[in-house]
Amino acid sequence: MKKITLTLTIAFLVSFNIFSQPFTTQSQWETYFKSKIQDLNPIEGIWSFTSTMKIYNGYNQLVYTKNYPQVEIVAIYKVSNKYKSISIGQNAVNSPEISFQNTATSGVYLMENYYKNTYSTAKSTAILTGIGLLEFTYEKPEVQVKYEGGSQYVDGTRIIYEHQWIKISPQAQDYSKSQPASGTGFGISSNGIIVTNYHVIDGAKTIKVRGVNSDFSKTYKAKVLISDKNNDLALIQIDDYGFTSLGTIPFTIKTGLVGVGENIFVLGYPLRATMGDEIKLTNGIVSSKTGFQGDITSYQISAPVQPGNSGGPLFDNQGNLIGIINAKHTGAENASYGVKSSYLSGLIELLPSPPKLQTVNSLTGKTLTQQVELVKKFVYIIETE
């Protein structure tokens, strides 16, 4: 048995309209989240949380500790650009308002705890592990401590809360059962021709492209133009009345063989359910001119890839396309594979009307950061059902 895994993803995320009236019972929330599971940010769902309160005196000495196990059940749901928490089955009118906001780092959120009666806010960083454990620590604002302490307040008193939230619903199996396949693709012609893997679109009844011109709120329907099962390649084209153009492709396709040790980088959308929709960059070197078990159609590279990277572009350090990511070795560290771009060129030539490919590379001579900034708007999420 080959120890190789095609990089198919099992999850994807899309944005959705937010309802104005939250639900009141846990069963209502569970039904809602499961019906929208394909759209959820990993932080959204029903949580049970435990907190520990620590009180320090003016000399920063710990004078009191109390643990509150499974304090309450809350729902976290999206409101505008934040994720608001609300108690389930309790009157939360006078309770703090805890909300979370995305950061540039997957699994890291900005937490804010707003106290209505003193108009004060505690802020902290919240860390989400996988999809089921959320942890953060914050200090209650001094004005709130004084307000709650009243006449018994002692100058210098500080109150620290340590929170650990466990997700109740949706559960891991709910995500795996409901997620359609997702991969990566990239444009090679302004008229909407996109490259991806054959295994990404194999058997798909519908193909949608997300991220055209960096707009992830809109999807475009696509059709298969031609495919090559043996080399795991496919050319699809956007077939949607709302589509205009992909724009000018900034890179060229290099058909010559790349040497071992060449610096390379990969762009794609791996593990979107937990890593989000922001494009992900990994880099490394060409480890071998042949792929799994000496496959001459592929390169072996050291750049890590994950489910969802399938169909993503593989570039050399000058921004030339040298391959298409399609597999990883499950029995080795940082052993990934990409189909050589010469096989893509052969497939393009088989089209009834081959597109005119870019001959000027706008990425050459630029830093990696600059290259990614230029090319990322031409790398797309491919969703299939």
In short:
This protein is mostly beta strands and 385 residues long.
Descriptive overview:
The chain has 385 residues and is mainly beta. It has 2 domains: 26-174, Beta Barrel (Lipocalin), CATH 2.40.128; 180-384, Thrombin, subunit H. 13% of the residues lie in helices and 41% in strands. The chain is built from 7 helices and 21 strands. The strands form 3 sheets. The chain has an 8-stranded antiparallel barrel with strand order 2-3-4-5-6-7-8-9. Strands 15-16-17-20-19-18 form a 6-stranded antiparallel barrel. It has a 6-stranded antiparallel beta barrel with strand order 10-11-14-13-12-21. Mean pLDDT is 87; it is low at 1-20.
Q: Which blocks of ≥5 consecutive residues have pLDDT under 50?
A: 1-20
Give helix % range: 10-25%
CATH topology of the largest domain: Thrombin, subunit H
Q: Give the C-alpha Rg.
A: 25 Å
The first-to-last residue Cα distance is 28 Å
Q: Which sequence of SSEs, written as H and E, runs from N to C?
A: EHEEEEEEEHEHEEHEEEEHEEEEEHHE
